[in-house]
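// run 5 | inverse folding | seed 20
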């Protein structure tokens, strides 16, 4: 099962202690890419600004989906 929102991811992390949070990110998602390629500082900064239009085009996502994926990557990296 994969998380579609940060809230779903948070619940999965709580229900599955000891399991890497990245397990709940779809491998081909922007969230997984961010988890693998960005650090927490970049992600937190990104969350506090507008969505990157180039990322949205490349990944075929809306600005709201971009923000949600960044939030999930932050959560997966922090594990909280």
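// decoded
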């Amino acid at each position: 099962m994969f998380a579609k929102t940060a809230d779903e991811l948070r619940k999965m992390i709580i229900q599955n202690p000891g399991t890497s949070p990245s397990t709940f990110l779809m491998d081909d998602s922007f969230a997984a890419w961010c988890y693998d390629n960005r650090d927490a500082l970049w992600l937190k900064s990104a969350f506090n600004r507008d969505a990157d239009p180039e990322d949205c085009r490349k990944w075929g996502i809306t600005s709201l989906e971009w923000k949600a994926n960044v939030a999930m990557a932050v959560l997966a990296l922090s594990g909280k």
